[in-house]
Amino acid sequence: MFRVLRTTRGGGMETDFERLHPRDSAEEDDDDEMVDIAGATLDFSSTDDVPPLGAGGLDDYFGSSSSSRAGVTGVTGMNGSAPKLVDPLDDPLPGVGTYEDFNTIDWVREKSRDRDRHREITKKSRQSTLALLRSVSDAFSGWLLMLLVGLMAGALAGGIDIAAHWLTDLKEGVCLVGFWFNHEHCCWTSNETTFQERDRCPQWQTWAQLISGQSQGAFAYIINYLMYLFWALIFSLLAVTLVRAFAPYACGSGIPEIKTILSGFIIRGYLGKWTLITKTITLVLAVSSGLSLGKEGPLVHVACCCANILCHLFTKYRKNEAKRREVLSAAAAVGVSVAFGAPIGGVLFSLEEVSYYFPLKTLWRSFFAALVAAFTLRSINPFGNSRLVLFYVEFHAPWHLVELAPFILLGIFGGLWGALFIRANIAWCRRRKTTRLGHYPVLEVLVVTAVTALIAFPNSYTRMSGAELISELFNDCSLLDSSQLCGYKQPSMNISDTGAGNSLADRPAGAGLYTALWQLALALIFKMSITVITFGMKVPSGLFIPSMAVGPSRAGCWVGWCSPGADCITPGLYAMVGAAACLGGVTRMTVSLVVIMFELTGGLEYIVPLMAATMTSKWVADAFGREGIYEAHIRLNGYPFLEAKEEFEHSSLAVDVMRPRRSDPPLAVLTQDSMTLGEVEALVESTHYSGFPVVVSQESQRLVGFVFRRDLLISIDNARKRQEGVVSASLVVFTEHAPAQAPEAPPFTVTDHTAMDITVDIFRKLGLRQCLVTHNGRLLGIITKKDILKHMAQIANRDPDSILFN
After folding, report:
1. What is the DSSP secondary structure assignment for residue 354, as one 8-state letter?
2. What is the phi/psi pair of residue 414, to 5°?
3. Mutual orientation of helices 404-434 and 511-534 as an angle, nearest 10°?
4. What is the Cα gyration radius of the chain?
């Protein structure tokens, strides 16, 4: 902590906190201050994501491993009167311990604050029954929060599924019984459907029937074509307009930003209420427009928004950034749980793919929240089939050992497709960011939607939604199946009593099946090319469903029928394995992906084919680049994210990375007891650093501690308001500990000869913002997370200035 020594009474320099430390734009009503992040124009005006944390005085505020306590005590005046003590424990300093937008949290400080809070609650619980009840309530609050997150996310996911299904069918027609019914629900109660045309009923009218009274012919086809294009453009226009007008953060998948936030980065408003409302509405519109995107990735963002908003109801999570990120990790599991109906896969997805800090307690709560969310979605039953997803399948035929070779080939194809897709998509997104293309997001969305609709309508496999396509390809053909992919010829010979010759394995492929396979091949080419352009536009866009659709399309082209008299293989199984391989090649998921896929199929006997294809896909894709699509977008957008999967193999030392370099000006430091308030304010005003090391003196450079810029300025401003006689000539004294408090933890330091691979591991495992470099106790420099990321970018021959934020 530090003290401000009074030298005179009255007068003095004006308290100019706003001049030294401009008001955070997130606290103002200025909607014009924008920044381009993740390919979207983002507004700092919302404070929903990270509201100001609690007052956090000396007892609550533990500086980072390299931070001092930021309390202020008044001291003796010139007349020798008794000191006026301003105790932060009794009168906390508002704002101390909070973080600015686009800054990294201090994990050590947040965990220390939570530990001190828990110790205080435990200590008081032994003193009275009321305190004991408060302790029990505090312990139970985490489970109650998980319950609320699961209920809210499950309800929103159910509403999104129902609305998206209805709007998708609205492009083709309307139900006369009630316009709010989708095609399937409209024909449920009809008694006039046939087996071959089970999707046609008098209650459902196409737009051609409504407008011209005709259901067949060229004129009817043109009307349906134009109405399909019209509704697609309307939906996409509404989606991109709402995103730009109300919540620019609502665009994209959201998973790269969620990963960055879970690593400790602050992005105000990204998980706020306006982002939640806008993303929920625009996700329905974007999926319904027919664009090659899915809703599974954005559902993770939606669930995390729900968790962040509900965290405001509980002081323990509202005032502690590290505790809040534990809840967000569980929310990521909830998002996958409601997206695929796979609670266990969701927990593993959060652990494997997005979480930065995942203690055992978070694992249990993630499991509970995913369970509640899946139960809520099952209760809503959005698809009317008592399943959590539209493309749930159940295979019964066993697989043969000889089929392991084509499973591995599917894995190779998935890996090649994943590597190709990542490179192509990143190149297109970089072009969007660096050229005039990025200045016209609405026009881009409309053009892509128009091209997608024009090409997709003639082909039934591209016209249907991604989930319906996967459901069609996952389908296990039976004798009563009317799908074109099950179009086998009827046997001409008499069927024996035993039914010999009546199985699908003994039937030759019909003309309809060959037509379907050609359409499927064209759909594969179209999906592969259009998804590259679609992912990353200014609308909510997920990647799971498009990637999964590519795999089954490729597998369907391989194994669409069986040879007469031979053991019939299961095309649906190959489609499922191909989907897993392609999704694994794009995202580099392994364990969680296999669990999600077998939760979808309800069978454990296909784990080996899934594991073989997924692992092969990852190996092949890693041979072309170790980054998955989310890590690639994190690097493209310059987020300060230290990837735990990436190994640091360079032999550099801490002295090679630290600042100041040889050509840089000396390190800006504060002395322990020899600087005046005016000198401190001048130093702060002339620099833009987030914090300053505190040394004994300029000559010795012996390290005392570290103080954050924000905490320093808030404390100075508080001293001017609460103490008399504080002027620019007042002496500022930093002490090692607060009065009557335990000594402050020493700052985290490394020596100048510490290997950088060890330093990088320290930053990753402790979540440090900065680390001080010393030589025999003498301060030499400082290493920040941004310095490490720049150094790693230089080693990889990338532009170090691509790391955008502090």
Report:
1. I
2. -60, -40
3. 40
4. 31
